[in-house]
Amino acid sequence: ETGVTQTPRHLVMGMTNKKSLKCEQHLGHNAMYWYKQSAKKPLELMFVYNFKEQTENNSVPSRFSPECPNSSHLFLHLHTLQPEDSALYLCASSQWSSSKGRTDTQYFGPGTRLTVL
Amino acid sequence: AQTVTQSQPEMSVQEAETVTLSCTYDTSENNYYLFWYKQPPSRQMILVIRQEAYKQQNATENRFSVNFQKAAKSFSLKISDSQLGDTAMYFCALGSARQLTFGSGTQLTVLP
Predict the structure, then answer these.
(1) Which residues of chain B does A2 touch, with a Cβ-Cβ cutoff of 8 Å?
(2) Which of A62, A58, A38, A59 is nearest to A48 (CA)?
């Protein structure tokens, strides 16, 4: 148990569906992240939120829409996905230090296994 | 741009033996963190060990230790007294100002 929870753990959706992934952290951190992990590929950073502000968007297609209503919750809204979007989606959180000018260790949730039919 | 390279896609080790996983990286920053994460079959990403670049002393966590060579930009992980539960994918990661850059991973199998 890392203090980061993700729901649902498994999701199967059609290409025309709309669904959302949820992440919640109980660590008091101020930064949250979405990663995509596909088979045979390194982890891909998708989005970064610092103090609820999106600071990174690594050229992610618009069919993925993040939302960070507060520093403890992070959502990933999905719509009109493609089969190649099937992957494990990992959420992480960390503490960003303005004095150090960097983020410390990231703690990961268990992931959501997404299958797009 | 930052890069992290793990040149060993797969490794195996006998139970109770010692194994070393390699990692090299490249960054233009002077102040950064290095991490080893493990991802067992459950897919939960778990922190194994953390090293701050400005610290010369190598980090140690129980059976896990690192050999950090800053000039060579090398960060290897040594696992002593390997246990069956150590079977997992191991990722080396470089932490800079705002994000982590991960290597491609090394699948370690501990054999009984």
Answers:
(1) 44, 46
(2) A58
